[in-house]
Design goal:
Blueprint lengths: L2 E5 L2 E3 L5 E8 L7 E7 L6 E6 L5 E3 L8 E6 L4 E6 L8 E8 L11 E2 L3 E5 L2
Parallel strand pairs: 2-11
Antiparallel strand pairs: 1-3, 3-8, 4-5, 4-9, 5-6, 7-8, 9-10, 9-11
């Protein structure tokens, strides 16, 4: 059974950093397009970053440029979201997503993790 499990969320002060992990089970992650989405309270869900099976990345939202990076460790079957210089507006539930055939530009993914809460507050 294909599963995505996020971890690494928590409470951090503004300006701090967190690294989210997305561990895949039941499939080989390197064959998939992987993304991170987030949903803040009262707001629509939005894409954050995406990485293709070839390792190319695409940024979905301007507000995280220069602060967030996505990477994958195929040996560990895990994708990471490194978040630096965090701001209160980054507070959201972050979801790891995957799709076998679609490209990052589609912003559509068949598989979703359960999400991990990130709270940026002093």
């Amino acid at each position: 059974q294909l599963q995505l499990v996020e971890s690494g969320g928590g409470l951090v002060q503004p300006g701090g950093s967190l690294r989210l992990s997305c561990a895949a089970s039941g499939f080989t992650l390197e064959d998939y397009t992987i993304g991170w989405f987030r949903q803040a309270p009262g707001k629509e869900r939005e894409g954050v970053l995406c990485i293709s099976s070839s390792g190319r990345t695409i940024n979905y939202v301007d507000s995280v440029k220069g602060r967030f990076t996505i990477s994958r460790d195929n040996a560990k079957n895990t994708v990471y979201l490194q978040m630096n210089s965090l701001k209160p507006e980054d507070t959201a539930i972050y979801y790891c997503v995957a799709d076998r055939f679609r490209l990052c530009v589609s912003r559509k993914f068949d598989y979703w993790g359960q999400g991990t809460q990130v709270t940026v507050s002093s």
